[in-house]
Design a protein that fits this description.
With 302 residues, the protein is mostly beta strands. The chain folds into three domains: 79 residues, SH3 Domains (SH3 type barrels); 59 residues, SH3 Domains (SH3 type barrels), CATH 2.30.30; 114 residues, Alpha-Beta Complex (endopeptidase fold (from Nostoc punctiforme)), CATH 3.90.1720. The protein has four helices and 25 strands. It has a six-stranded antiparallel beta sheet with strand order 20-25-21-22-23-24, with helices on both faces. The protein has a five-stranded antiparallel beta sheet with strand order 8-7-6-3-9, with no helix packed on it. Strand 18 and strand 19 form a beta hairpin.
Length: 302
């Protein structure tokens, strides 16, 4: 996805002609500035975020369960605001949001984990939470030797599928991305049910403790340092206009591919040639420490 031409990117700055974030006063023109109200995704595993309040539109992004959303306006069943995890602005169904408390204590580390009505895998699964979702744990239980976490508000998940927010993170973010191989490609998606190229990078880095922006053009600016040499080290990133891929080794890359409509691992040279014919020459960027990046940093398809 290419960068918009506005002086302030409207995907990362909440402003319209009639309403804007009070923190943008003096930087944008708007009829009214408001503080906004913090809310949290509580009623869905993931909430769709759209550019306009129209159900017919495709996704711009998604909010994961537990993420906070600063709401500047609620109207006709839509909440307009900004995701506090990655700064993305848009409209989400107001029905997916609720109060911010209680504060999350754990994050989901499985690609997707069932939420059971009781702490027992033989009981009914009432929903399923994606990788990166945040939950508040109210207690623990064990059934037939299997540990569970009891969620505040009801339900239970397998304890091995979550980690405390305070637990150290790090390791090989490429290995996280490779867990998504064969998941479907979905423009705007951020879960294993469907995701795009920049979401794959964002989610993989987040799992190892690195915050990244949402879109590929943002990531190209915020992540790593540009290198003139072809990317061959595991963990290098390759950018084209509207697309990003991760180098998995000297001869392979992994990416959410609109060509394959899947997350794939494929040979590097043919992929560079194919994408280059559509999008031009790539830009190579290298994260400090390669795939095993432990510091925190800032921070879609052919």
């Amino acid at each position: 996805m290419n960068a918009p031409s506005a002086v302030l990117d409207p995907r990362q700055n909440a402003y319209r002609a009639d309403l804007a974030d009070i923190r943008l006063r003096g930087r944008v023109e708007s009829a009214r500035f408001v503080e906004g109200e913090m809310m949290r995704v509580v009623a869905a595993p993931a909430a769709p975020l759209r550019r306009e309040p129209l159900i017919e539109l495709g996704l711009e992004s998604e909010l994961l369960h537990g993420e906070t959303f600063r709401v500047f306006e609620t109207k006709n069943g839509w909440a307009w605001g900004q995701n506090q995890s990655d700064g993305y602005v848009g409209y989400v169904p107001a029905s997916a949001l609720g109060p911010t408390g209680p504060e999350p204590t754990h994050r989901i580390t499985a690609l997707r984990t069932p939420v059971y009505s009781e702490p027992d895998v033989r009981k009914r699964a009432v929903s399923a939470l994606p990788l990166g979702a945040l939950v508040a744990v109210a207690g623990t239980a064990e059934t037939r030797g299997r540990p569970y976490l009891l969620l505040d508000g009801g339900g239970a998940i397998v304890a091995a599928h979550a980690a405390p927010l305070a637990a150290p993170r790090g390791g090989d973010f490429v290995a996280v991305a490779e867990r998504f191989i064969n998941c479907p490609y979905l423009w705007g998606g951020r879960t294993s049910l469907g995701l795009d190229c920049s979401a794959l990078v964002q989610l993989a880095l987040a799992e190892t403790g690195i915050a990244a922006p949402r879109d590929s053009y943002m990531q190209q600016v915020a992540l790593g340092a540009e290198t003139k040499r072809p990317a061959t080290r595991r963990g290098d990133l390759i950018f084209w206009p509207g697309h990003v891929a991760i180098v998995a080794g000297p001869e392979r890359l992994v990416h959410a591919s609109g060509h394959h409509m899947l997350v794939v691992s494929e040979p590097l040279a043919p992929a560079l040639e194919r994408i280059g014919k559509l999008s031009g020459a790539p830009v190579f960027r290298r994260l400090a420490g390669g795939a095993e990046v432990r510091r925190r940093g800032k921070g879609r398809e052919e």
